[in-house]
């Protein structure tokens, strides 16, 4: 079985192998009391920002403390190109599902978007809790997927803010069933930032499409079928990871 992944604070990992790192708190409790790791078992520690320490459990105390002896330190390069998905707020728990599966697939950033046709609204305390759930979901899915670099989940953005994000991208598109060009044939950059917009259940409104087009993001179709808002970002991310070479040879 692949060694489980646990998260430590930034700066807690050693620069070189041969040292020991303490894992405590909630992560230590999960390792000791839930996963029941014991001395000699393999473990991976990461800061979620691209660095991972691979080693074995050297000591265990109580219910929430262990010490790992580091045998190898790995650092992942920055992703190129970087893939960001702007996700309109879906109904119910489909937002967390979208974040979970996009994280497992390999997305680099997720932007919650308050689209005009969203049924769900993030306001006040409800919005704070919902954003925290998205971020916790990305963290846990990153661990499950054995990622060393977790996706960033940004604060909620308005349509105007999303347009600004699209304007600064090296490639930007809106997933839309009536898009003239397929995403599979779009010219993609080898580096920089790719930003895709996924609309809500009711679709992207005409004024939003116009604003995004003015920012340089044309509508693109993903395929012959219409996907749910919670699955379109996953399919698009997988397509882009393959086409850009991050999953193998590029086009």
SSE topology sketch:
Layout: E1 5-7, E2 20-23, H1 25-34, E3 42-46, E4 51-61, E5 65-75, E6 82-88, H2 94-105, E7 109-113, H3 124-144, E8 152-153, H4 159-167, E9 171-175, E10 181-182, E11 193-198, H5 206-214, E12 218-221, H6 229-243
Parallel strand pairs: 1-3, 6-7, 6-11, 7-8, 9-11, 9-12, 10-12
Antiparallel strand pairs: 2-5, 3-4, 4-5
Question: Briefly, what is this?
Answer:
This protein has 251 residues and is of the alpha/beta class. The chain is 30% helix and 26% strand.
Question: What features would you describe in this structure?
Answer:
InterPro entries: Alpha/beta_knot_MTases, PUA-like_sf, RsmE, RsmE_MTase_dom, RsmE_PUA-like, tRNA_m1G_MTases_N. With 251 residues, this protein is an alpha/beta fold. The protein folds into two domains: 5-75, Ribosomal Protein L25, Chain P, CATH 2.40.240.20; 82-244, SPOUT methyltransferase, trefoil knot domain (Alpha/beta knot, 3-Layer(aba) Sandwich), CATH 3.40.1280.10. It has helices at 25-34, 94-105, 124-144, 159-167, 206-214, 229-243; strands at 5-7, 20-23, 42-46, 51-61, 65-75, 82-88, 109-113, 152-153, 171-175, 181-182, 193-198, 218-221. It has a seven-stranded parallel β-sheet, sandwiched between helices. A five-stranded mixed β-sheet has the order 1-3-4-5-2, covered by helices on one side. 37% of the residues are buried. The model has no long low-confidence stretch (mean pLDDT 94).
């Amino acid at each position: 079985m692949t060694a489980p992944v646990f998260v430590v604070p930034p700066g807690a990992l050693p620069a070189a192998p041969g040292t020991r790192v303490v894992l405590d708190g909630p992560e230590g409790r999960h390792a000791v009391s839930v996963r029941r790791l014991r001395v000699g078992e393999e473990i991976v520690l990461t800061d979620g920002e691209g660095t991972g320490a691979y080693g074995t459990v050297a000591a265990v105390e109580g219910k929430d403390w262990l010490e790992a002896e580091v045998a190898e330190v790995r650092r992942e390069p920055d992703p190129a190109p970087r893939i960001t998905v702007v996700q309109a707020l879906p109904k119910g728990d489909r937002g967390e599902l979208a974040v979970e599966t996009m994280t497992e697939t390999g997305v680099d950033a997720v932007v919650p978007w308050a689209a005009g046709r969203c049924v769900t609204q993030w306001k006040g305390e409800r919005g704070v809790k919902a954003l925290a759930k998205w971020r916790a979901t990305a963290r846990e899915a990153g661990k499950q997927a054995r990622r060393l670099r977790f996706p960033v989940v940004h604060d909620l953005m308005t349509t105007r803010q999303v347009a600004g994000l699209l304007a600064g991208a090296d490639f930007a598109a809106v997933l839309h069933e009536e898009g003239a060009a397929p995403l599979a044939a779009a010219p993609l950059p080898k580096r920089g930032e790719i930003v895709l917009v996924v609309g809500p259940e009711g679709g992207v409104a005409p004024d939003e499409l116009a604003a995004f087009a003015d920012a340089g993001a044309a509508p693109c179709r993903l395929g012959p079928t219409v996907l749910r808002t919670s699955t379109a970002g996953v399919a698009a991310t997988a397509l882009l990871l393959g086409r850009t070479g991050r999953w193998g040879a590029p086009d």
